[in-house]
Write a structure and sequence with these properties.
CATH topology of the largest domain: Rossmann fold
Number of domains: 2
Radius of gyration: 23 Å
Strand order of the largest sheet: 6-7-8-3-9-10
Strand content: 25-35%
Number of helices: 12
CATH architecture of the largest domain: 3-Layer(aba) Sandwich
Shape: elongated
Structural class: alpha/beta
Largest sheet: 6 strands, mixed
Bound molecules: adenosine-5'-triphosphate, magnesium ion
Number of strands: 14
């Protein structure tokens, strides 16, 4: 890593008896997109809140752009943008007004506030709704305006807590693209997510966080290379998944069999999987296969292996958390 813009050592946060963050250390380099990936209650929001100065840590050291907390928090805050999990904008104010208000808060000179607000509305495809009250925005629009507001003062680092949770697919795609563009313009990005796929698509480096601890931290490439060693096969069965899993489990004890969220069987083995014997066994048992395909190695495989948390448990987190 070249220069670390974020340096966190042994960060802890206790809420009474609850240990929300339990000795977390990591560095983020300039220009990186770094992701915290973990399930509900893992400590993602607490960590991001500590990094942005919203929460007082119980212990550990934080420095942002070389500015050590807590002494230099205010100075650091001038260089970071924060997109909280719940929007902090004013419902009764329109989108344009909210952006101008944020611009004023950050001390932008009066003459640049309105042009900057317009530029951001354009960039986030919100120009048409700029005069509508924020409260009347869809969830996707709200999230986009919240990100726009966080960028008003051209921060060097952008922090986002679950940027695409609870919004429509089109807005989520647009947000990912915008984050990619911002990063290409040199903005360092720290985000949290419980979407494995989102971490895989967006992040250069990923930390798996479980119960307040980082259980793995690596580049996406290294993590994916790990998944490459094993082979996975997806079997779409006609109806009887339980029976199919039972038959295969009995005859092929070395193959791990899981049910994927789409309701198919996902087989994983340390070695090359041979298709024919599997199909024969299912055929003998009267279970019909209508699709079999090699599954692309994904971050999901590594995540499940390292954390023991099934991907569907992460997906189940959707819908809770945010209303
Ligand atoms: N203000 C608080 N008071 C007491 N406990 C808290 C507080 N904030 C968080 N916690 C606890 O700390 C732990 C970590 O919570 P945190 O919100 O950081 O997790 P998270 O990874 O962001 O989860 P989610 O995916 O649901 O947003 C949880 O056990 C939570 O209940
Ligand atoms: Mg959270």
């Amino acid at each position: 890593m070249t220069s670390a813009v974020l340096d966190v050592r042994d960060l802890t946060k206790h809420y009474g008896d609850v240990v929300a963050v339990d000795g977390v250390s990591f560095r983020v380099g300039a220009g990186e997109i770094f992701g915290f990936l973990g399930p509900n209650g893992a400590g993602k929001t607490t960590t991001i809140n500590a990094l942005t100065g919203l929460v007082d840590p119980t212990g550990g050291e934080i420095s942002v752009l070389g500015l050590a907390y807590p002494g230099h928090i205010s100075e650091a805050q001038g260089h970071i943008g924060v997109v909280p999990d719940e929007s902090n904008l004013y419902g009764e104010m329109d989108g344009f007004g909210n952006l101008c208000f944020c611009a004023a808060l950050y001390g932008l000179p009066r003459r640049v506030r309105e042009p900057r607000a317009r530029e951001l509305l354009d960039r986030f495809d919100l120009a048409e709704v700029g005069r509508r009250p924020f409260a009347a925005y869809s969830r996707g629009m709200k999230r986009k305006l919240t990100i726009a507001a966080a960028l008003i003062h051209r921060p060097q680092i952008l922090f986002l807590d679950e940027p695409t949770t609870g919004i429509d697919v089109a807005s989520a795609r647009q947000i990912r693209r915008l984050l990619g563009d911002l990063n290409a313009d040199g903005v360092t990005i720290f985000l949290t997510t419980h979407y494995i796929e989102e971490a895989e698509r967006l992040c250069h480096r990923i930390a798996f966080i479980v119960a307040g601890r980082i259980v793995r931290i690596d580049t996406k490439e290294s993590l994916l290379a790990e998944a490459d060693g094993s082979s996975s096969l997806l079997l779409a069965l006609d109806g009887n998944l339980e029976e199919g899993a039972r038959l295969l489990g009995e005859s092929f004890p070395d193959i791990a069999i899981a049910r994927n969220p789409e309701g198919n069987l996902l087989l994983t083995a340390a070695d090359e999987l041979e298709l024919l014997p599997l199909l024969q066994r299912l055929n003998e048992g009267g279970v019909k296969v209508y699709e079999a395909r090699i599954a692309r190695p994904s971050l999901e495989d590594v995540f499940v292996r390292v954390t023991g948390i099934e991907a569907r448990e992460m997906k189940a987190a959707e819908g809770r958390g945010r209303g």
